[in-house]
Amino acid sequence: MQAPEEPPDATVVARVLSGDAEAFGILIRRYEPALHRFATRMLGSADAAADAVAEGLVRAYRHLRSCREPARFRTWVYRIVANRCKSHLARRPSSDLSLDDLPPLPDPADNATALERAEQLMLVTRALGGLSAEKREAFVLKHVEGLSYEEMAAVTGARIPTLKMRVHRAREALLDTLKEYQ
């Protein structure tokens, strides 16, 4: 998100559209880490996520004039990156989904609590990889990225009741999967 001293998205978008191409860097710095986290969870690969985010940001820059609500740039750019992720998933077989490429977990330094937390995170990450792309997308947007259902609808194009059901079913599937590991 933006720091209090930074201009709002609508102001930055207006600057870019009026010829200040370098102002787009503000939006990249603001959203790229979260977009990469989202894409990594969607694709199961940090490299594929980096490609999807880069493609999405280039597309966002090229089509910035089509962003009807610059104040809602965040959901607009998430939608673009989500579509890039879906394209990447459609181009590769589902057996290609490898969660081994995820960023390494921090070294727990022999702290039992930290080790347990790291193991739980790895189990959740693996369980996420077993979900359908639609359920994974809904779960990650809601519980990892913290988007509201209204924002999620803008990103995915799905109706809010559909998204609520996907999140619910994803949560149930994750819980079932995690019970199997215990």
Structure description:
- The protein is mostly helical and 182 residues long.
- It has two domains: 1-99, Rna Polymerase Sigma Factor, Chain: A, CATH 1.10.1740.10; 104-182, Winged helix-like DNA-binding domain superfamily/Winged helix DNA-binding domain (Arc Repressor Mutant, subunit A, Orthogonal Bundle).
- The protein is elongated and about 55 Å long.
- It is 69% helix and 0% strand.
Produce the secondary structure layout:
Elements: H1 9-17, H2 24-43, H3 46-62, H4 73-91, H5 112-129, H6 133-144, H7 149-156, H8 160-181
Helix pairs in contact: 2-3, 2-4, 3-4, 4-7, 5-8, 6-8
CATH topology of the largest domain: Rna Polymerase Sigma Factor, Chain: A
In N-to-C order, the SSE pattern is HHHHHHHH
Number of strands: 0
CATH class of the largest domain: Mainly Alpha
| Low-pLDDT residue spans | 95-106
User: How would a crystallographer describe the biggest sheet?
Assistant: none
Looking at the chains present, what oligomeric state does this protein adopt?
Answer: single chain
CATH superfamily of the largest domain: RNA polymerase sigma factor, region 2, helix turn helix motif
Structural class: mainly alpha
